[in-house]
Amino acid sequence: MRQGVGGLGLGEKLGSYPIAGVGGGLAQMARRVGVMLYVVIIVCLIAITPPAAFAKGAVMTAVVVVLFGLMLAWRRTSARFGLRRC
Questions:
Q1: What is the 3-state secondary structure (H, E, C) of the chain?
Q2: CB within 10 Å: which end of the chain, N or C, has fewer?
Q3: How many angstroms separate the CA atoms of 25 and 59, rounded?
Q4: pLDDT band at 65 (very low <50, low <70, confident <90, very high)
Q5: Would the pLDDT of 16 be above 80?
Q6: What span, in angstroms and rounded, lies between the C-alpha atoms of 17 and 33?
């Protein structure tokens, strides 16, 4: 049976985030910035209402949904094949 992190004597647990390194931290920051930009652009499309605003909003929403689906697929695949073990 695997020993948990609490049993290793490394001190108290400070967070619930997995260890990801610099690349994982940068990817998470980029994802958060992308979602913030998406929200700002959708608000601007609603407030300013340019021509074909609905189509532009639909395309942006489809892109965000596809990226979110790819992220979930990568999580499932990497967990299934044991790629996320330290």
A1: CCCCHHHHCCCCCCCCCCCCHHHHHHHHHHHHHHHHHHHHHHHHHHHHCCCCHHHHHHHHHHHHHHHHHHHHHHHHHHHHCCCCCC
A2: N
A3: 28
A4: very high
A5: no
A6: 18
